[in-house]
């Protein structure tokens, strides 16, 4: 009984999309800050679910979850909350499907929306009953929410703009409970290999061409690193950001300033 009570004092974070490049860096930063991280991802094999991540820092547990499915999300969040006090929710899972308006498919339209905005809402809804004063929700948006020059990125950018609106509404809703809700909007972040959709949006036939285009768009003269997103996420989760809510922190090397 005593051991169980002690485990309840542990601070828990959930990170969706927790096996990708940005997700893994967020996991590592949260572990360094003392959290146990339950990294949820549909790419996690079921037999590896609820096990320590073999290729991530100690303190990261992987979990097989499909954020398009309410039951899957509820089970995921309930498991994380059973390990201790759920303090941080990072809605990092996202899906990019490119397409010019004349040829984008219904499947792409529906899937992008279902993952990028409805998925974040499902996770936040499931987490709400476990969150107490001082908890934090952080949504991972994108600079595509603010600009329109990403070729074929209309639906992705629109879903991220919706995610930013969701961030503001949820921040106001949860502020009386002492729960903060913010977002981080990354610019061009180097995660290789790039998906075909990312290469298309970045005007490249291959990773090298796409990275060159991203570099040209960025006043700082280089794409960002995944750890440069993880740091701002940790800041927003920390007491240093205790009076920040409803804010979108843009981390883009100056792209949207130019």
From TrEMBL:
It comes from the Bacteria. Coiled coil: none annotated. Residues 11-187 form the Ketoreductase domain. GO terms for molecular function: oxidoreductase activity, acting on the CH-OH group of donors, NAD or NADP as acceptor. This is SDR family oxidoreductase. Belongs to the short-chain dehydrogenases/reductases (SDR) family. Gene3D superfamilies: NAD(P)-binding Rossmann-like Domain. It holds the Pfam family adh_short_C2. GO terms for biological process: fatty acid elongation. InterPro entries: KR_dom (IPR057326), NAD(P)-bd_dom_sf (IPR036291), SDR_fam (IPR002347). It comes from Pseudomonas cavernicola.
